[in-house]
């Protein structure tokens, strides 16, 4: 995931066209999802008990929220202070930091699932739980609202001539 994000950030920096920026944003979003899945999988291996699992996933949720809060502010202030060229480079460096951090995490031996059906059956059993389906729907609505906010604030902020750091603080 970090390699894809880095490649796309550098590609966006090199070819600053709307089409390239759009495709790179899509690919960086996919890279972020890949990184999140890998992080959550690794976290599951780190926890040995149920209480550990809750604590580990709680910290993962907090780190994601902090990243979503601090990244726009960092980029906004970088744009205002140094310009778009340096902001692209800062964005390109962030996946490098993530990649370096992953090198410090020990590898986990993966045990192959004996029966592929057991994983699918477990997923179906979880989706059969009405409260879980409600939480998943709520999560979908909140994520969609956050995405709309992340898209609309820079557009409206630019229209109203807000600085990049102001837009980043609003985000």
How is this structure best described in words?
- The longest helix is centred in the middle third of the chain and has 33 residues, at 50-82.
- α1 runs antiparallel to α2 and α6 (130-159) packs antiparallel against α7 (164-170).
- This protein is globular.
- The protein is 84% helix and 0% strand.
- It has helices at 2-14, 18-46, 50-82, 84-103, 116-127, 130-159, 164-170.
- 12% of the residues are buried.
- By secondary structure, it is mostly helical.
- It is built from seven helices and no strands.
Name the features.
globular; 7 helices; mainly alpha; 171 residues
Write the SSE topology.
Blueprint: H1 2-14, H2 18-46, H3 50-82, H4 84-103, H5 116-127, H6 130-159, H7 164-170
Helix pairs in contact: 1-2, 1-4, 2-3, 3-4, 3-7, 6-7
